Amino acid sequence: MAVARGMIKRMSNRVGAVLLRPPTTPSHSHFFLLYNHSPPPSKSHLSSFSSTFLRSFSHHFPEETSDEGATTDGWEEEDETEPKIGDGGDGGGVALQNVPWGQRTLSIAEEVLMQFSEDIKLFAFKTTPRGYVYVRLDKLTEEYGCPSMEELECYNRKYKQRLDEVGALGEIPDDLALEVSSPGAERLLKVPDDIIRFKDMPMRVGYTENIESNCLERDGVFLLDFIEKDSEMCVWKLADVRENRDPLRKGRPLSRKQRDWRLKLPFNLHRMVSLYLV
Protein backbone atom coordinates (compact mmCIF):
# COMPACT_ATOMS: atom_id res chain seq x y z
CA MET A 1 0.00 0.00 0.00
CA ALA A 2 3.04 2.28 0.10
CA VAL A 3 2.57 3.00 -3.59
CA ALA A 4 -1.02 4.10 -2.98
CA ARG A 5 0.11 6.68 -0.47
CA GLY A 6 2.47 8.29 -2.96
CA MET A 7 1.84 10.10 -6.21
CA ILE A 8 -0.25 7.72 -8.29
CA LYS A 9 -0.04 8.25 -12.00
CA ARG A 10 -1.97 7.07 -15.05
CA MET A 11 0.06 6.73 -18.22
CA SER A 12 -1.69 7.58 -21.47
CA ASN A 13 -2.22 3.94 -22.50
CA ARG A 14 -3.35 2.82 -19.02
CA VAL A 15 -1.29 -0.38 -19.35
CA GLY A 16 -1.18 -2.44 -16.17
CA ALA A 17 -3.70 -0.42 -14.18
CA VAL A 18 -4.22 -1.90 -10.73
CA LEU A 19 -7.08 -1.25 -8.31
CA LEU A 20 -6.35 -0.73 -4.62
CA ARG A 21 -9.22 -0.65 -2.16
CA PRO A 22 -8.44 1.39 0.98
CA PRO A 23 -9.83 0.24 4.35
CA THR A 24 -13.64 0.23 4.49
CA THR A 25 -15.18 3.48 5.66
CA PRO A 26 -18.66 4.12 7.14
CA SER A 27 -19.74 5.68 3.83
CA HIS A 28 -21.52 3.52 1.24
CA SER A 29 -19.29 4.95 -1.49
CA HIS A 30 -16.33 2.91 -2.65
CA PHE A 31 -13.11 4.79 -3.36
CA PHE A 32 -10.32 3.50 -5.56
CA LEU A 33 -6.80 4.67 -6.28
CA LEU A 34 -5.32 3.57 -9.58
CA TYR A 35 -1.73 3.50 -10.70
CA ASN A 36 0.31 2.19 -13.56
CA HIS A 37 2.00 -1.11 -12.74
CA SER A 38 4.57 -0.81 -15.52
CA PRO A 39 8.24 -0.02 -14.81
CA PRO A 40 8.78 3.69 -14.14
CA PRO A 41 9.41 5.66 -17.34
CA SER A 42 12.66 7.41 -18.06
CA LYS A 43 12.79 11.08 -17.14
CA SER A 44 10.98 12.90 -19.94
CA HIS A 45 8.03 15.12 -20.73
CA LEU A 46 5.76 12.09 -20.54
CA SER A 47 6.44 11.35 -16.87
CA SER A 48 5.78 14.99 -16.01
CA PHE A 49 2.48 15.09 -17.87
CA SER A 50 1.08 11.75 -16.69
CA SER A 51 -2.44 12.11 -15.36
CA THR A 52 -3.42 11.14 -11.83
CA PHE A 53 -6.96 9.88 -11.42
CA LEU A 54 -9.32 8.72 -8.67
CA ARG A 55 -12.56 6.77 -8.97
CA SER A 56 -15.55 6.57 -6.66
CA PHE A 57 -18.59 4.30 -6.88
CA SER A 58 -21.81 5.02 -5.01
CA HIS A 59 -22.61 1.32 -4.90
CA HIS A 60 -20.65 -1.85 -5.54
CA PHE A 61 -20.07 -2.53 -9.22
CA PRO A 62 -20.12 -6.22 -10.14
CA GLU A 63 -16.73 -7.53 -11.14
CA GLU A 64 -16.34 -8.36 -14.81
CA THR A 65 -13.93 -10.61 -16.65
CA SER A 66 -12.00 -9.30 -19.63
CA ASP A 67 -11.31 -11.25 -22.83
CA GLU A 68 -7.91 -12.14 -21.37
CA GLY A 69 -9.54 -13.65 -18.28
CA ALA A 70 -8.51 -10.86 -15.89
CA THR A 71 -10.99 -9.58 -13.32
CA THR A 72 -11.89 -5.90 -13.68
CA ASP A 73 -13.95 -3.45 -11.64
CA GLY A 74 -16.66 -3.11 -14.30
CA TRP A 75 -15.73 0.50 -14.99
CA GLU A 76 -16.87 1.98 -18.31
CA GLU A 77 -13.70 3.34 -19.91
CA GLU A 78 -13.87 6.56 -21.94
CA ASP A 79 -14.06 6.11 -25.70
CA GLU A 80 -10.66 6.06 -27.39
CA THR A 81 -11.57 8.61 -30.05
CA GLU A 82 -9.59 11.43 -31.61
CA PRO A 83 -9.74 14.33 -29.13
CA LYS A 84 -11.46 17.56 -30.13
CA ILE A 85 -11.65 20.93 -28.43
CA GLY A 86 -14.71 20.93 -26.16
CA ASP A 87 -15.20 17.14 -26.04
CA GLY A 88 -15.18 16.98 -22.23
CA GLY A 89 -12.02 14.85 -22.28
CA ASP A 90 -8.55 15.64 -23.62
CA GLY A 91 -10.08 18.57 -25.52
CA GLY A 92 -11.44 20.14 -22.33
CA GLY A 93 -14.82 21.84 -22.06
CA VAL A 94 -18.19 20.40 -21.07
CA ALA A 95 -19.94 17.43 -22.71
CA LEU A 96 -23.22 16.45 -21.02
CA GLN A 97 -24.33 14.18 -23.91
CA ASN A 98 -28.02 15.03 -23.38
CA VAL A 99 -28.06 13.37 -19.96
CA PRO A 100 -31.04 14.86 -18.04
CA TRP A 101 -29.10 15.10 -14.76
CA GLY A 102 -25.92 16.41 -16.40
CA GLN A 103 -26.47 20.12 -15.79
CA ARG A 104 -27.21 19.52 -12.09
CA THR A 105 -24.03 17.49 -11.57
CA LEU A 106 -22.06 20.20 -13.38
CA SER A 107 -23.46 22.90 -11.09
CA ILE A 108 -22.50 20.79 -8.05
CA ALA A 109 -18.98 20.34 -9.46
CA GLU A 110 -18.62 24.12 -9.84
CA GLU A 111 -20.08 24.69 -6.36
CA VAL A 112 -17.50 22.33 -4.78
CA LEU A 113 -14.67 23.93 -6.77
CA MET A 114 -15.39 27.26 -5.08
CA GLN A 115 -14.01 25.74 -1.87
CA PHE A 116 -10.55 25.47 -3.45
CA SER A 117 -7.91 28.03 -4.36
CA GLU A 118 -8.56 30.22 -7.39
CA ASP A 119 -5.74 28.63 -9.39
CA ILE A 120 -7.61 25.31 -9.66
CA LYS A 121 -10.07 25.32 -12.54
CA LEU A 122 -12.38 22.87 -14.27
CA PHE A 123 -10.52 21.74 -17.40
CA ALA A 124 -13.09 19.19 -18.57
CA PHE A 125 -16.43 17.75 -17.45
CA LYS A 126 -18.32 14.89 -19.04
CA THR A 127 -21.34 12.77 -18.17
CA THR A 128 -22.48 9.55 -19.86
CA PRO A 129 -25.91 7.90 -20.16
CA ARG A 130 -24.70 4.95 -18.08
CA GLY A 131 -24.19 7.16 -15.03
CA TYR A 132 -20.51 8.09 -15.18
CA VAL A 133 -19.13 11.52 -14.32
CA TYR A 134 -15.63 12.49 -15.48
CA VAL A 135 -13.96 15.58 -14.01
CA ARG A 136 -10.51 16.91 -14.95
CA LEU A 137 -8.99 19.65 -12.83
CA ASP A 138 -6.33 22.05 -14.08
CA LYS A 139 -3.93 23.90 -11.76
CA LEU A 140 -2.91 27.13 -13.46
CA THR A 141 0.10 27.80 -11.20
CA GLU A 142 1.62 24.35 -11.68
CA GLU A 143 4.10 23.99 -14.54
CA TYR A 144 2.23 21.15 -16.21
CA GLY A 145 -1.25 21.99 -14.91
CA CYS A 146 -1.45 19.01 -12.57
CA PRO A 147 -3.03 19.43 -9.10
CA SER A 148 -1.39 17.49 -6.27
CA MET A 149 -2.63 14.06 -5.23
CA GLU A 150 -3.95 15.58 -2.00
CA GLU A 151 -5.95 18.21 -3.93
CA LEU A 152 -7.48 15.59 -6.21
CA GLU A 153 -8.34 13.36 -3.26
CA CYS A 154 -9.93 16.26 -1.40
CA TYR A 155 -12.02 17.33 -4.41
CA ASN A 156 -13.05 13.74 -5.11
CA ARG A 157 -14.22 13.28 -1.53
CA LYS A 158 -16.14 16.57 -1.29
CA TYR A 159 -17.76 16.23 -4.70
CA LYS A 160 -18.79 12.61 -4.12
CA GLN A 161 -20.31 13.57 -0.77
CA ARG A 162 -22.41 16.29 -2.43
CA LEU A 163 -23.48 13.92 -5.23
CA ASP A 164 -24.64 11.39 -2.64
CA GLU A 165 -26.53 14.07 -0.70
CA VAL A 166 -28.33 15.41 -3.77
CA GLY A 167 -28.93 11.87 -5.01
CA ALA A 168 -30.64 11.02 -1.71
CA LEU A 169 -33.08 13.87 -2.40
CA GLY A 170 -33.96 12.37 -5.78
CA GLU A 171 -32.62 15.28 -7.84
CA ILE A 172 -30.02 13.09 -9.57
CA PRO A 173 -29.44 9.31 -9.70
CA ASP A 174 -28.09 7.94 -6.43
CA ASP A 175 -25.70 5.46 -8.05
CA LEU A 176 -23.38 7.71 -10.08
CA ALA A 177 -19.74 6.71 -10.62
CA LEU A 178 -17.10 9.43 -10.49
CA GLU A 179 -13.60 9.83 -11.88
CA VAL A 180 -11.52 12.88 -10.93
CA SER A 181 -8.20 13.43 -12.70
CA SER A 182 -5.66 15.94 -13.93
CA PRO A 183 -5.63 16.80 -17.66
CA GLY A 184 -2.73 14.53 -18.57
CA ALA A 185 -0.31 14.45 -21.46
CA GLU A 186 -2.88 14.37 -24.26
CA ARG A 187 -4.60 17.65 -23.42
CA LEU A 188 -5.31 19.86 -26.42
CA LEU A 189 -4.22 23.49 -26.24
CA LYS A 190 -6.42 26.39 -27.26
CA VAL A 191 -5.00 29.05 -29.54
CA PRO A 192 -3.88 31.54 -28.39
CA ASP A 193 -4.57 31.35 -24.62
CA ASP A 194 -3.09 27.95 -23.76
CA ILE A 195 -0.06 28.23 -25.99
CA ILE A 196 0.93 31.46 -24.23
CA ARG A 197 0.76 29.57 -20.92
CA PHE A 198 3.01 26.76 -22.20
CA LYS A 199 5.19 28.92 -24.44
CA ASP A 200 8.48 27.62 -23.00
CA MET A 201 7.64 24.00 -23.84
CA PRO A 202 7.86 22.21 -27.19
CA MET A 203 4.45 21.67 -28.79
CA ARG A 204 3.22 19.49 -31.61
CA VAL A 205 1.31 21.70 -34.01
CA GLY A 206 -1.06 20.40 -36.68
CA TYR A 207 -1.91 23.05 -39.26
CA THR A 208 -2.90 23.83 -42.81
CA GLU A 209 -1.43 26.52 -45.02
CA ASN A 210 -4.79 27.88 -46.20
CA ILE A 211 -8.45 27.70 -45.28
CA GLU A 212 -9.45 25.30 -48.07
CA SER A 213 -10.98 22.07 -46.74
CA ASN A 214 -8.95 19.89 -49.11
CA CYS A 215 -5.66 21.48 -48.11
CA LEU A 216 -3.06 19.01 -46.89
CA GLU A 217 -2.57 19.11 -43.14
CA ARG A 218 0.99 19.33 -41.87
CA ASP A 219 2.51 19.05 -38.44
CA GLY A 220 5.74 19.84 -36.66
CA VAL A 221 7.35 20.23 -33.26
CA PHE A 222 7.74 23.93 -32.54
CA LEU A 223 8.35 26.50 -29.84
CA LEU A 224 6.26 29.63 -29.75
CA ASP A 225 8.39 32.61 -30.73
CA PHE A 226 5.76 35.31 -30.28
CA ILE A 227 2.15 36.21 -31.05
CA GLU A 228 0.99 39.10 -33.23
CA LYS A 229 -2.29 39.91 -31.51
CA ASP A 230 -3.45 42.56 -33.96
CA SER A 231 -3.14 40.26 -36.94
CA GLU A 232 -4.11 37.13 -34.92
CA MET A 233 -0.94 35.37 -35.97
CA CYS A 234 1.37 32.92 -34.18
CA VAL A 235 5.04 32.89 -35.08
CA TRP A 236 6.65 29.49 -34.47
CA LYS A 237 10.26 28.34 -34.52
CA LEU A 238 11.68 24.82 -34.63
CA ALA A 239 12.11 23.15 -31.25
CA ASP A 240 15.54 21.67 -30.62
CA VAL A 241 14.36 18.07 -30.39
CA ARG A 242 15.55 14.88 -32.07
CA GLU A 243 12.68 14.94 -34.54
CA ASN A 244 13.96 18.23 -36.02
CA ARG A 245 17.67 17.41 -36.08
CA ASP A 246 19.58 16.18 -39.10
CA PRO A 247 20.14 12.41 -38.58
CA LEU A 248 23.53 12.79 -40.30
CA ARG A 249 24.60 15.29 -37.62
CA LYS A 250 24.10 12.89 -34.74
CA GLY A 251 24.30 14.54 -31.33
CA ARG A 252 24.51 18.06 -32.75
CA PRO A 253 21.97 20.85 -32.17
CA LEU A 254 19.95 22.56 -34.87
CA SER A 255 21.83 24.26 -37.67
CA ARG A 256 21.81 28.05 -37.95
CA LYS A 257 19.41 27.82 -40.89
CA GLN A 258 17.01 25.77 -38.76
CA ARG A 259 17.34 28.15 -35.81
CA ASP A 260 16.49 31.10 -38.06
CA TRP A 261 13.47 29.38 -39.67
CA ARG A 262 10.04 30.80 -38.74
CA LEU A 263 6.44 29.82 -39.50
CA LYS A 264 3.79 32.56 -39.41
CA LEU A 265 0.44 30.94 -38.89
CA PRO A 266 -3.00 32.59 -38.46
CA PHE A 267 -4.99 31.44 -35.44
CA ASN A 268 -7.67 29.82 -37.61
CA LEU A 269 -5.21 27.60 -39.49
CA HIS A 270 -4.16 25.71 -36.35
CA ARG A 271 -5.88 22.32 -36.47
CA MET A 272 -4.53 20.73 -33.30
CA VAL A 273 -1.92 21.79 -30.75
CA SER A 274 -0.69 19.58 -27.91
CA LEU A 275 2.29 19.31 -25.62
CA TYR A 276 5.20 17.44 -27.18
CA LEU A 277 5.96 14.01 -25.69
CA VAL A 278 9.45 12.60 -25.95
UniProtKB/TrEMBL annotation:
<protein>
    <recommendedName>
        <fullName>DUF7912 domain-containing protein</fullName>
    </recommendedName>
</protein>
<dbReference type="Pfam" id="PF25498">
    <property type="entry name" value="DUF7912"/>
</dbReference>
<dbReference type="InterPro" id="IPR057234">
    <property type="entry name" value="DUF7912"/>
</dbReference>
<feature type="domain" description="DUF7912">
    <location>
        <begin position="188"/>
        <end position="276"/>
    </location>
</feature>
<feature type="region of interest" description="Disordered">
    <location>
        <begin position="62"/>
        <end position="94"/>
    </location>
</feature>
